[in-house]
Amino acid sequence: MKLALKVLMVVAMTLAILIPLTMIRGVIQDRQAYRTQAVQTISRSEAGAQGIVGPVLVVPWTETIEVEEKNALGQVTGKVKRDGNSGQWVFFPRTSGFEGRMAPYTRRLGLHEVRMYALTAQLEAKFDAAIPQDADPELPRRIGQPWLAYGIADVRGLRAAPRLRIGGVEHGLQQGQGHRDAPGVHVRIDVPAAGGRVQLETKLDLDLAGAEAFAFAPLAERNRVVIESSWPHPQFNGAFLPRDRSIGTSGFSAEWEVSSLATNAQGQYRAGAGLSSESVGDIRHGADAGMDAIGISLVDPVNTYSQADRASKYGLLFVLLTFVGFFMFELVKQLRIHPIQYGLVGLALAVFFLLLVALSEHIAFGWAYLAASIACIGLLGFYLSHVLRDRMRGAGFAVMLATLYAALYGLLVSEDNALVLGAGLLFVILAAIMVATRKVDWYQLATRAGEHRA
Q1: Which ranges of 313-390 would DSSP assign to H, the alpha helix?
Q2: Which residues, in sequence order, are bridge partners of residue 202?
């Protein structure tokens, strides 16, 4: 009976430790939210995630209609021509080539670092647009002055004025996309004749700053995108993965080839879709941004808060294994361990995760993990050598905890294999406990424990 009560006490103490563990996870999530706010603050002051859409050739037109004129008696006195309905034709490039290099740098706000990049790029496009003929030569459409439009998610990121050359001749750019309320630049070109063709070769040079992520919308019939960077940890996202990629310690290079047959980007553009900093962020996180796009992010492989949050999920396992060890010592060695001592050890294990996130805001995550684990293992080894009345026993528990912390760090740095490593670790621990207790007579231990307490 007393053994059952002891088991219930251990279970209750384990569940009680969930309270500080939950509070610590709340602190980690709050710090993650503060970092998100820091990213937003820097984005507002410098530039957000960037995206490029275009170029697009827009040709406005106005119908000519014939209206009868009548006198006061209602008699037709003649006919006059007036402007009727108006609209615009939108033409996309036959081919498009985007080549850019992303040079990473950081911005700090308080304790938080935000990954930024300077994108130096050239966007080439070729147009061969057929202007529709007039349905009625007697009532010709009036064609307005066309323009080329380029969408830029956050124009504040323009580090210098873009240079646009059409047929080798440089043209000055104007703000806005001209035909929609969206950020970007545009240029007016000569008015074409009805039934004629507009053939253009364009080159746009860009020097653009952005935060963490970039996207490109493939609007041409054939699109080729090449992006290079010295950042060694890219994340490819969006609707298309690169056809070729090369990733190494010195950086990465990626190339995409996208056909208009493989994307609905043109239809989405005609329906009013575009790329904003928010939608590029959605692409980065795998959400639907409303427009097919090539996406790339400069990610930090060791995100302090996500790593600390993942580590804290194993906190209950640490506490449970330690309490099981206590329980075994208490039964086998006939030691008496007070519930307060259980609680203090559980709190020390929980505080490790708070130390981890606090230190990792100031030093590298690996060093923060090492410092926090040494502090907690040292404290528990010292304390348990007195609780268990033997320095060797305290040292044994310290070695067990050091092994657990080392295994946990292996799980954190091997994100792709975390599940299989975690499952394997749990199996090994359970197997070790079962092998160690395979010959234990639990009824006899319970009787001895009862006699000892009596």
Answers
A1: 315-332, 339-360, 365-387
A2: 125, 166
Both 289 and 370 in one domain: the answer is: no
Going by their DSSP bridges, the two strands 174-175 and 76-91 should be labelled as unpaired
CA dihedral over 41, 46, 52, 54, signed as positive or negative: positive
| 3-state class percentages of the chain: helix first, strand second, coil last, to nearest 5 | 40, 30, 25
Please say whether the beta carbons of 246 and 253 come within 8 A.
yes
Q: Is the pLDDT of residue 77 over 90?
A: no
CATH number at residue 183: 2.60.40
Reported as a single tens digit per residue, the pLDDT across 98-127 is 999 999 988 876 666 778 899 999 999 999
Q: Please state, in angstroms and rounded to a whole number, the distance separating the CA atoms of residues 362 and 377.
A: 21
Residue 44 resides in a domain:
no
Answer yes or no: is 224 within a domain: yes
Q: How many domains does the chain have?
A: 2
* Among candidate residues 238, 273, 298, the one where a domain is terminated: 298
pLDDT tens track for 298-355: 887 666 777 777 777 777 777 777 777 777 766 666 667 777 777 788 888 888 888 8
Same domain? For 85 and 113 the reply is: yes
Put residue 280 in one of left, alpha, beta given phi > 0 → left and psi -120 to 50 → alpha. alpha
Backbone angles phi, psi at 10, to 5 degrees: -65, -40
The answer to whether residues 289 and 434 belong to one domain is: no
Q: Is the dihedral of CA 386, 23, 281, 237 positive or negative?
A: positive
The 10 Å CB-count burial string (b at 16+, else e) for 28-41 is: beebbeebeebbbe
Residue 235 sits in the same domain as residue 338: no
pTM, two decimal places: 0.71
How many CB atoms within 10 Å of residue 181?
Answer: 8
- The vertex-180 CA angle with 174 and 182, nearest 5°, equals 70
Backbone angles phi, psi at 204, to 5 degrees: -115, 125
Query: Could you list the residue range(s) of the whole structural domain that residue 109 is in?
Result: 49-298
Output the pLDDT for position 96: 95
* Token pair 């990121």: residue: 157
Q: Are residues 291 and 313 in the same domain?
A: no
Q: So what's the pLDDT on residue 225?
A: 95
Q: Say yes or no: 241 and 343 in one domain.
A: no
> Per the domain annotation, does 41 fall within a domain?
no
- pLDDT higher than threshold 70 for residue 400: yes
The answer on 426 and 283 residing in a single domain is no
Q: Among 271, 298, 325, identify where a domain stops.
A: 298
**Is the pLDDT at 142 greater than 70, yes or no?**
yes
* Cα-based distances in Å from 378 to 314, 317, 319: 20, 20, 16
Query: What's 131's DSSP letter?
Result: P
